[in-house]
Amino acid sequence: MVDPDPHASARSEVLGRIRAAIGPDRPRVQIPRDYDVRREHGNVVELLARRIADYRAVVRRVAAADLPDAIGTLLARRQVRIMLGPADLPEEWRAPDVEWHLDDPPLTVEQLDRADGVLTGCAVAIAETGTIVLDAGAAQGRRALTLVPDYHLCVVRADQVVGSVPEALARLDPVRPLTFVSGPSATSDIELDRVEGVHGPRTLEVLVAS
Amino acid sequence: MAGTGVTWLGTPAFPRAARGALADTQLRRNLRKATHTIRDKRAAAVAELADWERLRRAGAAIKDSVLANLDVHLERLEAAVTARGGVVHWARDADEANAIILRLVRAAGADEVVKVKSMATAEIGLNEALAEGGVRAVETDLAELIVQLGRDRPSHILVPAIHRNRAEIREIFRREMPSASPGLTDDPRELADAARHHLRLKFLSARVAVSGANFAVADTGSVVVVESEGNGRMCLTLPETLITVMGIEKVVPTWRDLEVFLQLLPRSSTAERMNPYTSVWTGVTPGDGPRQFHLVLLDNGRTDTLADEVGRQALRCIRCSACLNSCPVYERTGGQAYGSVYPGPIGAILTPQLLGDLSHPQPASLPYASSLCGACFEVCPVRIDIPRVLVHLRSRVVDARGGRSPEAAAMAALAWIMRDPGRFEAAQRAGSLARLLARQGRISRLPWPGSRWTSARDVPAPPRESFRAWWRRNRG
Amino acid sequence: MRVALFATCLTDTLFPGTAIAATRLLERLGCRVEFPLDQTCCGQMHLNTGYREHAADLAERYAAIFAGYDAVVAPSGSCVAMVREFHQDLVASPSRNGAVRHTYELSEFLVDVLGVTDVGAYFPHRVTYHPTCHSLRAIGVGDRPLRLLSSVRGLDLVALPEAETCCGFGGTFAVKNADVSTAMLADKMRCVAETGAEVLTAGDNSCLMHIGGGLSRLRVGVRTVHLAEILASTEEEPWRAPA
Q1: CATH number of the domain where residue C16 is located
Q2: For a Cys staple, B366 with which of B27, B33, B343, B348, CB 3.0–4.6 Å?
Q3: Interface pTM (ipTM) of the complex?
């Protein structure tokens, strides 16, 4: 027999089976939320720097005013020629002596692949876990931009740093495309030992500006 | 609806499959090294959070609350995903899911898909189904790639190639990877690099990707994939079409609930404070990522599992594999002996339930593949009481067998003896005759079934008198 | 205090020395010990092998026999775990659950109820302690056995490597999955031998029978002795190997 509308019948059958499995008396479950939303860490910016460094990423703390110089120094040290950035990359971050390609009009995958690196800001950073969260907002651009290039330089402002995962999630809008980045790409697939550098950027550098 | 595809046809029951694995000295060494490495690291990562036990309780309760109203949460998820431009499909079983995916891949005009490691697609045998339909599936997770290139079977939930060491991986790459240099060494860095080069072009040119999902938020329609290598980001971001297959139990009610799981999962699985990459997307975002998003909601035995009040807690599982890493049985047999894509302690309770078959000897052997030591429960981030479920499923196995076995007869006889102290004492006296078999206080050979004990261990000679006989003489 | 000894079927039958030791130890500490002769088995083997109805019969018997006591003490973490974790689900009448709540593993009873860690024992041997899985993870006896052992005069306590790993006994697991069980046993024996101890002790005769059976088979030169027997041993009445 041919099912007239397999989608509708699969949907109603699965939902029906769920209802039958649970039965008429649905358990009432209280969720205990007594875990820590904030934890006492002292200086979260310092902790963030330490935790990112634990992933073998490079971290520098700089005064906001020195940010352009710090960017220039890092890029010069890596001898990059072509850097990418989102369309709204702040003017003052675009170090001289580097060819800047902004994502406007959108760069092709080949252009992303040919660049030496990408510079972005971020939305939130989580000190405890050494995580940077990108939400495609200001100075970040679309997701592919920070994925295809082999080098990602990310600027974190001190006021973007929170202590814990719960604090970070409270600041984020889940319907924006989000990427949580904790160190360079890595794998534990060989003997369950961690090795940095697989498909995502193999080098992550972070400038924390306060 | 009973699940299909979960187990590999032809795998013998666990004791026999385990015997072969135990004799593989390379496997034993690889597993011991890997499981011990990760155990210590996990303990350290967990010890950093003073509220770990509270997080576990919250995680378990969130999952239980989802299961208690699973239909409601799935309908909300469907509505939210649809509102954001995604398309939701429902699949009763593996065949239906595979058919949906094959149809979508063909509609996108592709003959190849890139895949993010996903237990759901392994469970339904998607790669084989796609191959039959003329579509190549390229695994992009390093361990999945090792398994695929080695024409092997997975043996671990998180690290499917855990049974392979670096030297074996180098051999597989040199043999099966055209781009691998002949001088490739077994340095894990070089091996990871070889995988990068092998897959780079695939990522940049793929038109369709298939992924699983770690979580999906009912409230917002947001889907979450937790990964390490960036292969997930490649698949989730670059192709035009993304097809995500998700077990129906993966839904969580709200965005806030992830604050619990994003702490529990990385520390339990790779023993990291946070995994390198977590991607969250909601439907389709113009100008950023795939232009078409399909979410396939998979039952495949989950509703059967949900119907068992004790066994349903297996559906809390977030696939971290801490229970595998801590299990003394898994450590010695590896995952393939379980004959299922879900090995180890969680597999021993999930596989027979998803299959809905406790009478077939292979799945029926799985709940017995445990000494009930409880190490799995202790590390489970969502507090699945695996020993309790194992014991529960054992009684379902016995019920399914219908009481007709030599074991059932022996158990009934033993229970009959134990129900009456007079009979018990008579049996003690009869048993003490076994002293005649003893030399120097020990018995080294017993007839079957006792021979299964004495194959490796002596038995103490029964004493001259039982304790109750002593008691009656001295205190009675 | 009216204390009932639940000897457990295994100890009653094969290791009477352990129950005799537990009796003498508790009496020495001022308890009036009773041994209800109707007792047989807690039903653990039946339940853990899948025979729930037989287990329920035995759980009902246990509840009826031990209902009237202030405390029930058993020299087995595993049987106590069975009673505390599973009997409630198996016994039809909740009013009979008094026995469940008042059932203690021996080291729990000594430390928590009697409030002693120095029981006046003397045992001049090098000893290592294996925390059995159910003592450790199901009922959580923690370091109580170690506190008791460190107060024993003459006893040289050495730590067991990988102590918290299962020995591979697991009830019928030992015969249903004899090969895996043996592989686990081999590692446990290696760890025991590494300590240089002459005695391995634990709170469960079932695990000790398994490990001891392996040690005996391979002539390792380590003997297994239940914790109760060490704690009962004194200068006046030192521990003696069973005849």
Answers
A1: 3.40.50
A2: B348
A3: 0.97
- The CATH 3.40.50.10420 domain(s) of chain B lie at 65-302
B31, B365, B398, B471: best to mutate for the C interface, most C CBs within 10 A:
B471
pLDDT at B258: 98
**A69-94 pLDDT, tens digit each:** 999 999 999 999 999 999 999 999 99
Any domain includes C239: no
Domain shared by C103 and C202, yes or no: no
CB-nearest to B278 from A6, A148, A180 is: A180
Kindly state the tokens that stand for B131: 């191959």
- pLDDT higher for B292 or A5? B292
Is there a contact between A148 and B204 if contact means CB atoms under 8 Å apart? yes
- The reported pLDDT for the residue numbered B440 is 85
Q: Is B439 exposed, middle or buried (0-12, 13-18, 19+ CB in 10 A)?
A: exposed
Q: What pLDDT, in 10s, does the model give residues B94-145?
A: 999 999 999 999 999 999 999 999 999 999 999 999 999 999 999 999 999 9
Task: Assess contact for C11 and B459: CB atoms under 8 A.
Answer: no
- List chains adjacent to chain A, taking adjacency as at least 3 C-beta pairs closer than 8 Å: B
Chain A residues in contact with B260 by the CB 8 A cut-off are 35
Q: Does residue B211 or residue A2 have the better pLDDT?
A: B211
Clarify whether residues C8 and C94 are in a common domain.
Answer: yes
Residue pair C150/B352 in contact by the 8 Å Cβ criterion: no
pLDDT of residue C100: 82
Cβ neighbours of residue C207 closer than 8 Å, sequence gap 6 or more: C78, C130, C132, C133, C167, C169
Show which subunits contact C, needing at least 3 CB pairs below 8 angstroms: B
3-state SS, B237-271, equals HCCCEEEEEEEHHHEECCHHHHHHHHHHHHHHHCC
Identify whether the C-beta of residue A200 lies closer than 8 Å to the C-beta of residue B236: no
User: What are the beta bridge partners of residue B165?
Assistant: none
**Touch between chain B and chain A (3+ CB pairs, < 8 Å)?**
yes
Contact B333 C58 (CB under 8 A): no
| Average pLDDT of the segment spanning B185-190 | 94
Nearest to B91 among A10, A182, A189 (CB): A10
In 3D, which of B196, B250, B212, B3 has the Cα closest to residue B119?
Answer: B212
Which residue from C13, C173, C179 is facing B466, i.e. has the nearest CB?
Answer: C13
Q: How high does pLDDT run on average in chain C? A: 96
| Subunit contact A19:B71, Cβ cutoff 8 A | yes
The CA distance from B458 to C1, in Å, is: 40
Residue B346: the pLDDT is 98
Given this model, what pLDDT does residue C1 score?
A: 79
The fold for domain B65-302 equals Rossmann fold (3.40.50)
Task: Pick B333's closest partner by Cβ from C13, C37, C180.
Answer: C180
What is the number of structural domains in chain A? 1
Beta bridge partners of C71: C3
In which domain, by residue range, is C152 found? 126-232
